[in-house]
Amino acid sequence: MTGPLSSLRYLFADIIGDDEEARPLLPDGLSADAASIVGAAIDRLIDYQGPSYAGLYVDRLRRFVYRREVDDAMLCEIARLMALRMSYDDPIRIAQLKLAEAGDGDPRPGSSDEVARFRFDELVGALPAKVAEPVLDVLE
User: Fold this and answer.
1) Are the CB atoms for 76 and 37 separated by under 8 Å?
2) What is the DSSP string of 35-57?
């Protein structure tokens, strides 16, 4: 299932909490470098939203695998950028990762000293509209 139908399927699986799909397979025809990048991206997207969302990533990536004008270096860059765009680390996501790290009891070396700095618009953008609008009105 590709295109809008796979996006809808992902959305409904996320809403009802039914995401029991298996880990998506790597597309055929990837070089070792691309397979490494795509494998890491799949892991990241499973952690971010689940297996069906990672499957959506693989479906989108397949469009580029056998194109003549897309060489291996370009495919690696497409795979990397697409994964980053599909798993945006907003303030809420970064907090989730920090909490998960703290819950593990085994934080990554050096990560506990990390301080995330956000622009004001990123923080206001994470607020519900009813809260964000008055804040923005005051600042204008």
Assistant:
1) yes
2) HHHHHHHHHHHHHHT-HHHHHHH
- Do 79 and 36 contact (CB within 8 A), yes or no? no
Record the tokens describing residue 39, joined without a space. Answer: 């494998």
Integer Cα distance of 59 and 37 in angstroms: 15
Say how many C-beta atoms besides its own lie within 10 A of residue 58's C-beta.
20
Which letter does DSSP use for residue 113 in this model?
G
**What pLDDT score was predicted for residue 70?**
92
Name the one residue in this structure whose structure tokens are 């609008």: 133
Tens digit of each residue's pLDDT (9 = 90 or more) over 72-108: 999 999 999 999 999 987 777 878 778 888 877 655 5
In the chain, where the domains are located: 4-86, 91-139
The contacts found for 112-121 with CB under 8 angstroms, 24 or more apart, are 116/91, 118/91
Q: What is the chain's Cα-based Rg?
A: 18
Q: Please tell me the pTM assigned to this model.
A: 0.64
- Amino acid at position 31, single letter: S
Which amino acid makes up residue 103?
Answer: G
CA–CA dist 126, 119 (Å, integer)? 11
